[in-house]
Amino acid sequence: MKTSILEYLEGSAKKYPDKTAFADENTSCTFSELEKTARRTGTALAKHFTPRNPVPVFMEKSVETIGIFMGAVYAGCFYVLMDTKQPASRLQQILGILDSDVIVTSEKYLKDLEKLDFHGTVLMAPELAAEPENPEVLKAIREQALDVDPLYGIFTSGSTGVPKGVVVGHRSVLDFIDCFTELFDITDKDVMGNQAPWDFDVSVKDIYSGLKTGATVQIIPKQLFSFPMKLIDYLIEREVTTLVWAVSALCIISTLNGFEYKVPDNIKKILFSGEAMPVKHLNIWRKYLPDVMYVNIYGPTEITCNCTYYIVDREFQPGDVLPMGKAFPNEKVFLLDEEDKLITERNKNGELCVSGSALALGYYKNREQTAKAFVQNPLNDRYLEPMYRTGDLAYYNELGELCFATRKDFQIKHMGHRIELGEIETALSSLSEIQEAICLFDPGRDKIICVYAGEMDSKTLAVSLRGILPRYMLPNIYRQKQQLPHNANGKIDRKALRQEYDAENNGL
Q1: How many folded domains does the chain comprise?
Q2: Taking the model in full, what pTM does it have?
Q3: Who contacts 267 (Cβ-Cβ below 8 Å, separation ≥6)?
Q4: Are residues 249 and 388 in the same domain?
Q5: Cross-strand bridge partners of residue 376
Q6: How many Cα atoms sit within 13 Å of 178 on the Cβ side?
Q7: Which residues form the domain of 225?
Q8: Are residues 3 and 141 in the same domain?
Q9: What is the distance between the alpha carbons of residues 69 and 80, in angstroms, rounded to a whole number?
Q10: pLDDT tens for each residue of 351-392
Q11: Taking the C-alpha atoms of 187, 190, 196 and 202 in order, what is their torsion angle to the nearest 10 degrees?
Q12: Last residue of a domain, one of 411, 426, 452
């Protein structure tokens, strides 16, 4: 039984020593080179960190960065990527939570680091990688390691305005990646096209699928996602076969008619997550790449990437809801009503809950929030069974398939009716002229606000929705934008739009 993800790296380094493991636009490394770099880096980091503590990494995703990540693991620690492009105030909050007086970076990011007002020890990545390996030190660390030790930390937004650090352990990743690679037949013949930032858990599937199977991970430059034709050229040039992307990234190509330029025929598998995939965009991809395996995957950071998957096996029309599918092996996914009773009947919304070894270790140094989200399964009064409350509402459709409804906190009371804003958003996405849309609710004015990007003017949009939605669900206010803001994870930034609306209507 594997107890550390380092066994993935060491296994592939032994089996595929000279094969490219990771590549970015500037450089690459083989599996054996990565292992050697990681061992040297781990030796160096062990002088500054004790096991099971966080290693803040102030860098962007690159071949160099993966060496630091694996080095942190060899040191018995867990890594936390601090994206250099994030606001300094948020990064300072994260550093405060981590309570580390040591940070890792490289020369390229020193000026950005100055903005953080950090007064601790700054370790340079190239110097760490140049440290001679000390096998005895690494062996002693490894002998004390457990499979439930933390592997990485990812900070998500907190409802109180303070970021929450989700900590995930080795066992959770080992269990998930073993299932993930087997289900979707990811092998050493695959080339993963990494889109996700490395402080976003979608990247975990790229990184560890590659390390486990010997697949090559091509790190796609972020700027290419603003230029669909260049992006397609990159996918073709790097012979990418597998995309594990956020929905918004896929929609960039379909919205801007990228396939009219070229079709990346090497692609065989496309797995998407982050938010609901608009069927009209899925159908564009299926039109140009009909023989590809398309998979809708779902899950929050707190349950190690994903807990459900649906392999698209039939045709869908705009406005249809794409199923979430079924639970990954070794994960239990179920619905609870407001009284914590199990929901099994069709077309009834309930909160989606998850249990199993995929659960995260909780929120770093935040017992209060951990206790709220990770709770005893109320259906089990016989033994300890932690579960995670996702805060998402889902239901079983007529075929018994699990389907996403909306966020629990997107449910509103309007004109005496209980309404899911997600249902209105699904109706909006069914209209071909609408690129993106979200809905907000102003309880003080009892108004539903639709914010959208697309070619349709607001009057025409309002008329179109009347043919789809009941009158009480129609938005009261329409705001057309050139494009909607997105957060670092590629999702529509609801918080930014909410702040913009509140400022305009409250004179702030």
Answers
A1: 3
A2: 0.86
A3: 235, 240, 241, 242, 243, 289, 292
A4: yes
A5: 386
A6: 18
A7: 220-411
A8: yes
A9: 8
A10: 999 999 999 999 999 999 999 999 999 999 999 999 999 999
A11: -20
A12: 411
